[in-house]
Amino acid sequence: MTLHQNLIAGEWVGSNGVENINPSNTNEVIGLYATASADDVRTAIAAAKQAFPAWSRSGILERHAILKKTSDEIMARKEELGRLLAREEGKTLPEAIGETIRAGQIFDFFAGEALRLAGEVLPSVRPNIGVEITREAVGVVGIITPWNFPIAIPAWKIAPALCYGNTVVFKPAELVPGCAHAIVDILHRAGLPKGVLNLVMGKGSVVGQAMLDSADLAAITFTGSTGTGKRVAAASIEHNRKFQLEMGGKNPMIVLDDADLTVAVEAAANSGFFSTGQRCTASSRLIVTEGIHDKFVAALTEKLKTLVVDDALKAGTHIGPVVDERQLATDTDYIDIGKKEGAKLAFGGDTITRENPGFYLQPTLFTEATNQMRISREEIFGPVASVIRVKDYEEALAVANDTPFGLSAGIATTSLKHATHFKRNSEAGMVMVNLPTAGVDFHVPFGGRKASSFGSREQGKYAAEFFTTVKTAYTLA
Ligand code: ADP
């Protein structure tokens, strides 16, 4: 089996590899992927530092061309890369191809942004002086990504980093080195100079930690768990570096008495259970007013019965497996916790076996949950959601905001008054009206509030805030 190596200083290196396993069929090894050592990370950071002066001054046409070429190849290979993604992460093939297309669109967007770099020219408050405000690259950027969006998250961090002239050391999650390796290979062949983009695969505790400990990373952008996010923050403050964190969510979706029942059920099923509930924007708190509660629970339960849980590559699968054994254990632990806390198991709750050995779990719905239960306060990150019954919109809004997190929030209603009020008063970074809490566009800002996020927004032109630093220059005319 070929060994997929790390890319350091423009060379593919590494001899020891770990197996990448398919969660839909644990007998299947997708490939062997090299693991970097702390020394490799230091070499990669040194290479990126050396490459920075030239890349940060490279022409915008060169950056545009490389990002565009990358987009074109991702688009042309979307079926193949989507299959790889579905095999290593477990989301269904249509979801995986959709994510791959999104990665292609992101590279295309930032190829365009490279041509739209701009600043401001203003008069000074003092006579005969001009002021120019420009954006410059930050330096070497460390990128640490999670397993749940193996191609889109690396794309939405790598593309702006390179677009604005930064050099990169990229560490993907251990469970999904395949897509990471594939996009780095595409960017490398698209013509990136040596050292501009380095790939260091391996363990968080070794590779990630060596990045946190480096004094030569000017910035780190991180998506992952709250615990690791706090480590990134602490280490970044120590090294006086810029950092950006995207962490957990416990996203609410309100369903009001006046909701269109079909819209509400479709949005809840999508938010709670598609992509196996493994999205930071997934909704696991369905906050439902009394008048529609029983009808909504009955209709959602009927919908869940129709969802097929099976191999991610099989046609007709709606929900793929959980990503690995550890995450499955977390999910089933939370299902036990929910039962012990007194929530009523309305659907699912059990692991299931399929033709091949994999980490299959039924979509699981609790009812009669309260917002104080652990299943309502802690992020589960699986296909598990709870219904919380409330009296009216005012109580629903209070419950929706009563959470340590603030990434995404949804409401199903036909009332313009309540939709408008919710958009203004939700304490989340993203608000969805009559739509799932998950599923966002690539050209607009993505991010949350409270314990979900820290730092400036990702994606769209707002990404410039993190990946550039502002310079104000004064000239006496
Ligand atoms: P999850 O529980 O979803 O896997 P993690 O926060 O553990 O979330 O993982 C997100 C990313 O952070 C992964 O790439 C992981 O390897 C990395 N990581 C884990 N531990 C550390 C650490 N101590 N320092 C830096 N990165 C880490």
Concise summary:
The protein has about 475 residues and is an alpha/beta fold.
Explain how this protein is built.
The protein has 477 residues and is of the alpha/beta class. The protein folds into two domains: 3-247 and 452-476, Aldehyde Dehydrogenase, Chain A, domain 1, CATH 3.40.605; 251-433, Aldehyde Dehydrogenase, Chain A, domain 2 (3-Layer(aba) Sandwich). Helix content is 40%, strand content 25%. It is built from 15 helices and 25 strands. The chain has helices at residues 38-56, 60-76, 78-89, 93-114, 152-163, 177-189, 204-212, 226-238, 261-273, 290-306, 325-341, 374-377, 393-401, 416-425, 464-467; strands spanning 3-4, 6-8, 11-13, 17-22, 25-34, 120-123, 129-137, 140-144, 167-171, 197-199, 219-223, 242-246, 251-255, 283-289, 344-347, 351-352, 360-361, 364-369, 384-390, 405-406, 408-412, 430-433, 449-450, 453-454, 468-476. Strands 15-18-19-14-13-21-22 form a seven-stranded mixed beta sheet, with helices on both faces. The chain has a six-stranded mixed beta sheet with strand order 10-9-8-11-12-24, with helices on both faces. Strand 11, helix 8 (226-238) and strand 12 form a beta-alpha-beta unit. Helix 1 packs across helix 7 and helix 9 (261-273) crosses helix 10 (290-306). The longest helix has 22 residues, at 93-114. The chain is globular and about 70 Å long. The chain starts with a strand and ends with a strand. The mean pLDDT is 98. It binds adenosine-5'-diphosphate. Residues 144-146, 171, 173-174, 204-205, 208-209, 212, 224-225, 228, 231 line the site of adenosine-5'-diphosphate.
